From TrEMBL:
GO cellular component terms, A-Z: intracellular organelle lumen
Identification of the protein by name: Propionyl-CoA synthetase
Pfam families to which the protein is assigned, alphabetical: ACAS_N, AMP-binding, AMP-binding_C
Sequence ranges assigned to domain AMP-binding enzyme C-terminal in this UniProt record: 510-592
Gene behind the chain: prpE
Acetyl-coenzyme A synthetase N-terminal domain segment(s): 4-58
Length: 629
């Protein structure tokens, strides 16, 4: 049996021992005596009697162990022409001081802090400062519009919001402060204060409740780490569900830190003193786990990159970063590599740099299409590792465990389940399907440490959305199969969540925006395949009876208004560019819109007419629109 099989078996045969041993990689203020509390399923708790501070483990512990002078975080920003390295000692001090600022503003254990920031080191510093105080951060991705930010502020009810004057998107400067001000106008909850990092590219106008980051840091005294219960929340990260209301995924401290610390050497093959470059954003789970927490928990060096794969200014930036900092493992979304391939199909830029230190490319966030896999593998001549995970899980579910044993790669599969994950495929009646057959991908409970214990303030939605479809299993929302070698194939979401350029979005949320237009009677948004972004949304609207659509240019004007509404209310990142006005939407006899059938036709499949359809004529009339004939 191979090393992977041994490790996996150990995690199954002695779950308690396996995770208690993994937890020994960390400093505990009170070491846990047991791993799992399973007394109240489906609410499982990891290391219930442990006490820990995650920021201490990410920073102070390494300084105390003699890594103070090693690089902890390298900020590389081609869009502002800045490079800055923070050693472990420097980062600890910056975090301690900013924790002092937050403490002065009344933030204590359990209080929430919303962080709405671009890819600057201060975003990571603010996250770690919250962790130091035992406060709960909630980072909101900068590409979300004011309304989305407001919804999150209302749900998290933060004491303080931390933001910046602007972000830089390619060559454009995006002012964040007006978006924050607008969000605070829209939200019912009002934080006590906003801390604003002024950036020279656009200075923000400050109001009475705004505190200048630099001023506050200048006056603050450092705060020590506060030990909290292992099961206390470290952060809440909102993610798209099937409705417009995002789900607040809760992450506990002890279980998460244990899982991440385990994953760094075993999955990513990165240990203390080595460098990982994760090109994502701190607003997503990939950024939380593999830009900020995991690399630092492992005593490694993390690169925080502010820029795009292409156009900032060229397709050589990823390669430059990797050669300049001796990156061992790189992690990004397949869409970034599709962007590189389009811009530089022969990989000329890559050949200009010394990439001899690069051992692996990890890709996740969406399905890795075989063509992108092939291009990246041939160009880099290293293992290209597809792995599958979700905001809810916090770390990979299925991966090629490079640090344990590099398993044979089957293109199209993220390989095999990691320790702690009992992955099964069920049919609609909850029966296991034979190897090779498609069904719902589920994980048998309990989930391993690191996965979410619940949703913020909403145990009921946690149970209803994830735990009730099949009793005793977590419903991942993805469909797929497991082959006879145990390889998992993830084929896509079975709900209304779509993945646009690796960004998870809700078509239901976009539908709510379209439906709010006074001329729209009903609508549907579906995710269709896109060569670059993986998927993009397309909208279809039916006009209200009595709307006069005969005026010249009416439809163009309506389409432009609808596109702008989604941009303003969800954010540019939604990338909804196409909306069609149609006479009717195909539905089942019980009134459910046939989104899956529409999606299949738009993707070029020969979709059969469902037996439950209300009117075949409506579907047939829509076929050419969907196919863009
Ligand atoms: N703040 C403000 N606006 C943002 C933003 C942010 N943080 N991030 C994206 N946007 C805007 C973009 O400027 C763009 O606006 P536009 O429509 O006016 O051009 C829009 O949102 C769509 O952004 P994006 O989907 O990122 O498309 P893009 O064309 O700018 O870039 C890629 C495409 C593939 C290069 C880019 O998505 C990428 O690098 N992806 C990497 C993968 C990744 O980060 N995945 C996250 C999870 S791992
Ligand atoms: P997020 O919560 O933003 O990380 O998005 C999670 C979703 O992205 C999953 O439910 C999948 O649909 C998709 N996803 C992530 N990684 C992969 C992968 N390696 N292969 C296929 N789909 C993936």
């Amino acid at each position: 049996m191979g090393a992977y099989e041994d490790v996996f078996r150990a995690s199954v045969e002695d779950r308690e021992g396996f995770w208690l041993r993994a937890a020994e990689a960390l400093d505990w203020h009170k070491a846990p005596t047991r791993a799992l509390d399973d007394s109240n399923p489906p609410f499982y708790r990891w290391f219930p009697d442990g006490e820990i501070n995650v920021a201490h483990n990410a920073l102070d512990r390494h300084v105390e162990a003699g890594r103070g002078e090693q690089a902890a975080l390298i900020y590389d920003s081609p869009v502002t022409d800045t490079k800055r390295t923070y050693t472990y000692a420097q980062l600890r001090d910056e975090v301690a001081t900013f924790a002092g600022v937050l403490r002065e503003l009344g933030v204590g254990p359990g209080d929430r802090v919303v962080i709405y920031m671009p890819m600057v080191p201060e975003a990571a510093i603010a996250m770690l400062a919250c962790a130091r105080l035992g406060a709960v951060h909630s980072v909101v991705f900068g590409g979300f519009a004011a309304k989305e930010l407001a919804v999150r502020i209302d749900d998290a009810a933060p004491k303080v919001v931390v933001s910046a004057s602007c972000g830089i998107e390619g060559k454009r400067v995006i002012e964040y402060k007006p978006l924050l001000d607008k969000a605070l106008e829209l939200s019912a909850h009002k934080p006590d204060k906003q801390v604003i990092l002024q950036r020279p590219q656009a200075e923000a106008a400050m109001g009475d409740n705004d505190v200048d980051w630099a001023d506050a840091v200048g006056k603050a005294s450092p705060a020590d780490p506060v030990p909290v219960k292992s099961t206390d929340p470290l952060y809440v990260l909102y993610t798209s569900g099937t409705t417009g209301k995002p789900k607040g995924v809760v992450r506990d401290g002890g279980g998460y830190a244990t899982a991440l610390a385990w994953s760094m050497p075993n999955v990513y093959d990165v240990s203390a003193g080595q460098t990982i470059f994760t090109a994502s954003d701190v607003g997503w789970v990939v950024g939380h786990s593999y830009i900020v927490y995991a690399p630092l928990l492992a005593g490694a060096t993390t690169v925080l990159y502010e820029g795009k794969p292409v156009g900032t200014p060229d397709a050589g930036q990823f390669w430059r970063v990797m050669s300049e900092y001796g990156v061992r493992s790189m992690f990004t979304a397949p869409t970034a590599f599709r962007a590189l391939k389009k811009e530089d199909p022969n990989g000329e830029y890559a050949r200009k740099y010394d990439l001899s230190g690069l051992k692996y490319l990890f890709l996740a966030g969406e399905r890795l299409d075989p063509e992108t896999y092939r291009w990246a593998s041939e160009l880099l001549d290293i293992p290209v590792i597809d792995h599958w995970w979700q905001t809810e899980t916090g770390w990979p579910i299925v991966a090629n465990p490079a640090g344990i044993e590099l398993l044979e790669i089957k293109p199209g599969s993220p390989t095999r389940p990691l320790p702690g994950w009992d992955i099964q495929i069920l049919d609609t009646d909850g029966r296991p399907v034979p190897a090779g057959e498609d069904g719902a991908i589920v994980a048998k409970l309990p989930l391993p440490p690191g996965a979410f214990p619940t949703l913020w303030n909403d145990d009921e939605r946690f149970v209803q959305s994830y735990m009730s479809a099949f009793e005793g299993y977590y419903l991942t929302g993805d469909g797929g199969r497991i082959d006879s070698d145990g390889y998992v194939f993830v084929m896509g979401r079975t709900d209304d969540v779509i993945n646009v350029a690796g960004h998870r979005l809700s078509t239901g949320g976009m539908e709510e925006v379209l439906a709010s237009h006074p001329d729209v009677a009903e609508c549907a948004v579906i995710g269709v395949a896109d060569q670059m972004k993986g998927q993009i949304p397309r909208g279809f609207v039916v006009l209200k009876a009595g709307v006069d659509a005969s005026a010249e240019g009416y439809e163009d004007k309506l389409r432009a208004e609808l596109v702008q509404m989604v941009r303003d209310q969800v954010g540019a990142v939604a990338s909804l560019k196409e909306v069609a006005v149609v006479p009717a939407l195909p539905k089942t006899r019980s009134g459910k819109i046939l989104r899956k059938t529409m999606r299949g036709i738009a993707d070029g499949a020969d979709e059969p007419v469902p037996s439950t359809i209300e009117s075949v004529d409506v579907l047939e009339a829509l076929r050419p629109v969907l196919r863009k004939d």
